[in-house]
Fold this sequence. Notes:
Blueprint: E1 2-8, E2 17-23, E3 30-39, H1 42-48, E4 65-72, E5 84-87, E6 90-92, H2 98-101, E7 113-114, E8 133-137, H3 150-153, H4 159-169, E9 177-181, H5 185-196, E10 200-205, H6 211-217, E11 221-224, H7 228-232, E12 238-243, H8 252-255, E13 258-266, H9 279-283, E14 288-291, H10 297-309, E15 316-320, H11 324-332, E16 339-343, H12 345-352
Helix pairs in contact: 4-5, 4-10
The protein binds NADP nicotinamide-adenine-dinucleotide phosphate and zinc ion.
Zinc ion binds next to loops.
Amino acid sequence: MSKTYSYAAQSASDSLKPYRFERRTPGADDVQIDILYCGVCHSDLHTVRNEWHNTLYPSVPGHEIVGKVTAVGANVKNFKVGDLAGVGCMVDSCQHCASCAEGEEQYCENGFTGTYNGPVFGGENTFGGYSDSIVVKEKFVLRIPHKDNLAAVAPLLCAGITTYSPLNHWKVGPGKKVGVVGLGGLGHMAVKIAHAMGAHVVLFTTSPNKREDGLRLGADEVIVSKDAEQMATQANQLDFILNTVAAPHNLDPFLALLKRDGTMTLVGAPDSPHPSPTVFNLIFKRRSLAGSLIGGIEETQEMLDFCAKHNIVSDIEIIAMQDINQAYERMLKGDVKYRFVIDMATLKQEAAA
Length: 353
Ligand code: NAP
Ligand code: ZN
């Protein structure tokens, strides 16, 4: 066992505070990682505050992890001490159901094990990346092809794969007109990745002051979604829409922008439901409303390689571990450009003091 220093919430109303626990000694198939950076996902906030009504406490969030390998088990083949390594949203799955067999571990029929908050179908708690180190099965550890700017690579492990996977699945590419709803952590990665895939990208934002950033990040057009006139210019035009909004909202104005046979995929996971959309918006143009969850391990590696090839990283603001509670308040106000990343040196200094 090794002593681990972290930040945890002890209840839904608690702020994140220092917390010590022990990680397992690496087994034959394990990789031990010294965490350098961890991104701050809106899912961390939903979990810490028990907004999905499934949080196990203490809660140590964090699933956008980049670090350096400090030990490997006897069976580990692809990592050695000193290598860079990444960990995303999953650390285990059953490995034998149909989804796992197809490399879609996020849809594991027996429930994958989240990097934090334990197996999705119940079981022992797991502690995530707001900590100085982690031990993970090699199968769930990613290779980091980027050479530098490692803090900005961390958000690819969740925000990157959660947007790459549906863009890939619904075959976004040249000749396709693609909408991205919400310019936050996920949304800004979606804009960059859809642009790199060769699509025409339309950003929908509630924040008029994000227009310039949207264009700089790769959007061809920016529409303020609260402005009905601007929305009307896009009616029946989009092949695909990726909706990343973290709060319940009316889906109809977006469904009305899809072409015949178009799909809107929801990745945002608000704590309460969206109002049900009007069925006529679906049936009259054979439109689909879909959902998507992160992405499999093989696809996550493919996304990291794609991003390295296209020079894609996240736009980040580096914070100290001690600033996490203020960062959550700012994230709730949409005041983040466009992902907070924790510099774990600040946690290690505190642990040593
Ligand atoms: P974020 O950085 O907070 O971004 C959310 C964006 O949604 C905001 O920047 C804002 O963009 C837009 N928005 C519009 N109205 C909003 C409102 N009333 N409240 C909050 N946001 C509003 O969050 P994120 O980290 O990208 O995560 C987005 C959602 O995806 C969360 O629910 C998260 O849990 C979920 N998620 C899902 C998966 C999955 O696998 N499906 C994976 C990771 C995260 P504008 O200012 O441009 O309107
Ligand atoms: Zn996440």
